[in-house]
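Appendix B, record 7
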Amino acid sequence: MSLFLEILKLTLPALVVFFTVYFMLKLLLEERQRMDAMLLRQDAQKVTLPLRLQAYERLTLLCDRASIPNTLLRVRMPDMTAAQLTHALLIAINQEFDHNTSQQLYVSETLWRIITVARQQTLTLITQAAEGLDPQESDEALVQRLFAMLEAQGEPTPLQQAIVAIRTEAGQLF
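Structure tokens (predicted):
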């Protein structure tokens, strides 16, 4: 029995020290892993933050350039017919969108959906304005119809709403 007590006197403190060191090292390693993960996130954010901000800028520019008044200023030429202007507007807006498709990688899915819906609503508005017009009619008739429809639609337009959504999401970065 005394041998058992002697062994117990030697092993019990050793076991206590072992488990204490084990749990302390475990806590230390877990804390170090958390710190390393946090540093990795910070480093990744240093790289992605400028890309995300650039994406917000480009998408804001897309929405501004795809607005009907701005697109009209760029594509309208003298002596265009209503059909030619309709075609030019639809192509210009689709090209603007196509040039910025890669920006969806840096924004939320919800924001991207808002932008695509705004684009689609703008294209639909142009198509609706062109319906019922003689294709050979002057582009002025289409322009007047577009502005009348925009006025009836009221503020903000879908693209202006998309710009507000972009600003809101970009503001959440800070």
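Remarks on this record: The chain has a mean pLDDT of 93. Residues 49-171 form one domain.
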